[in-house]
Amino acid sequence: MPGDNAKKALIDSMNGLLADYFTLYLKTKNYHWHVAGPQFRELHLLFDEQAAELFALTDVIAERVRKNGGDTLTGIGAIAGKASIKDDDRSKVDAMEMVKALRDDNVALVKAIRAVKEAASEAGDNATEGMADDWTDQAEQRVWFLTQTLA
Ligand SMILES: [Fe+2]
């Protein structure tokens, strides 16, 4: 039987992942709101689609934490304390710099999802382990779109 330590590690890594989703959601929205240049419309719309995907998973991840018996994030301060993805508080950022930053952040997210999947496996949480594959596919799709936009 998986021990309490494995469960605790899973809850911790899921709360870290949740903080990353919220952070990347808001960063993507920041870019959606402030992007400028010849590709404005395309990037404005792409960033909005990606932000919606990120936001849609926040509730799912938080509730997986609760179903595992843990407390989840409670507010902006808790998000800031747990996130490993960095905010970008600037409003004037070159459009391709935005695309590159989001690409790198989504690559980091794929790694964080993998860590959650491993922790879920250790803790015997099959549901999270299975769902993580869909989260990875979504994140890799975002990486693909952003990478192709840079090429
Ligand atoms: Fe909008």
From TrEMBL:
One of its GO terms (molecular function) is ferric iron binding. This is Ferritin. SUPFAM superfamilies: Ferritin-like (SSF47240). Belongs to the Dps family. Pfam families: Ferritin. PROSITE patterns: DPS_1. InterPro entries: DPS_DNA-bd, DPS_DNA-bd_CS, Ferritin-like, Ferritin-like_SF, Ferritin_DPS_dom. It comes from Novosphingobium subterraneum. Residues 12-150 form the Ferritin/DPS domain.
